[in-house]
Amino acid sequence: MKFLIEKICCIGAGYVGGPTMAVIAHKCPDIEVNVVDINPLRIQEWNSPDFDNLPVFEPGLSDILKKCRNRNLFFSIDIEKHISEADMIFISVNTPTKTRGIGAGQASDLKWIEASARQIAKYAKGKTIVVEKSTLPVKTAEVIKSILQTLSSSNKYNKQNSKKFYILSNPEFLAEGTAISDLTNPDRVLIGGDDEEAISCLKKLYLNWVNEEKIITSDLWSSELSKLIANAFLAQRVSSINSISALCESTQANINDVSKAIGMDSRIGEYFLRAGPGFGGSCFKKDILNLIYICNNYGLDEVSSYWEKVLTINDWQKNRIIKIISEKLFGTISGKKIAILGFAFKANTNDTRESPAIQICKGLLDEGSFLSIYDPKVHINQIKNDLATFPYIENSSSNHSASWESAESIEDAVQNSDAMLILSDWEEFYNINYKILINKMRGPSWIFDTRNIINLDEAKKSGFNVWALGKGNLI
Ligand code: UDX
Ligand code: ADP
Predict the structure, then answer these.
(1) Residue 473 pLDDT > 80, yes or no?
(2) Is the four-CA dihedral 69, 70, 72, 76 of positive or negative sign?
(3) Which member of 201, 276, 319, 475 has the lowest number of beta carbons within 10 Å of its beta carbon?
């Protein structure tokens, strides 16, 4: 039996669904791609004529949208229509960590996945390939499969007995900020499943732009597990280098030199060895928590406590940065103004999920400081959400203890501040004009660089006291 793919529906118009479907539509002009979401505001934003204000900021994305939107790429809230017309359905909904019930704090909440599966069971017609795309916990495909099988075998949803579903796992390895290049030139495409025809159908889609040797296949479970483990290994590398950043500070070594030296060993490799304020993003923590949960379930306590340490170091790194800042500013930051440069979890994204900036800012606010927060892309409402319990002050001319303001630029943020704290590695923070900024700040003026991006010599020459992660005391 052959599949013919003319229409694709993607459930979930988020950081994964939006860019992924944009690239598929771009590379497969003969296929109609419909991205649906339950959130009408999100869909409205994707359809906005203002390409600079899409719900997801991703370099290169707006150029693709300009070419494909309303040609063969559509964003819609009509979930029923697009599911019912689709030959292939991607599930790209969110799977956050459960906050209560069994597995709370570790297992992912599958309620959005289940809702999607129920919608598919209800509205799909004929033979449909269902592709699990979300960043998700292991064995989700089994959940989707069993919902679809159970519901489609009941007469209520399958009166003519015409519905048949083929489940595939096709994990997304894109990183935010580089999503478009990751999608157009992936290291590999992984397809897991047990139906050869369905697998080759999805493979054919990717062959429009990906070399065959980069497309690998496996069973469902191995595919899902690979995604989890890829993220766990990447997070582990960040925690490893971050742990060594502390050792470098204590022993006066330079973390950049250490990273470079070890990274040139081809067995270790140069990537993911940049020390920083801790990893953020929607995947790393969630996936490690899932891994811990699964290992505990199988009685693999040593394995789970090994991976727990990756999270422990990540939290510790953020907390020690808060302490260092307080210590350097004469042991108290109450009432002091600190300019926060970067709130996103890394450069080139407007995403703040699990951003180290959240925990660090909260820690500084708890100590009573006044924060002036500047990020080139994060919307102020997002910061309000993330720092919910701390008061936001508008148009302030003086410091307010344990509260924060939003700044329009670096210059605006540092005005009358005691310190600037660099948390995300945005390009514009690499080229700070130290001479101009120091004149706007209170003395002694500090720079705390958690990303190792500033020009130390110039900063010091301009009169700044500098603390740079992994480089010890550099005053
Ligand atoms: C990650 C995976 O890279 C991607 O394959 C998966 O699909 C989703 O999760 P993402 O969360 O977008 O992607 O960002 P990534 O670039 O991996 O960075 C994650 C965090 O680690 C960021 O906070 C980043 O600043 C930090 N990081 C990364 C470092 O601190 N040092 C590094 O060397 C690399
Ligand atoms: P990710 O980073 O995995 O893409 P996001 O939170 O950015 O996660 O996006 C997930 C999207 O899925 C959200 O826009 C949310 O509204 C949408 N969504 C969740 N459940 C459903 C559903 N049952 N039907 C349609 N859309 C859904």
Answers:
(1) no
(2) positive
(3) 475
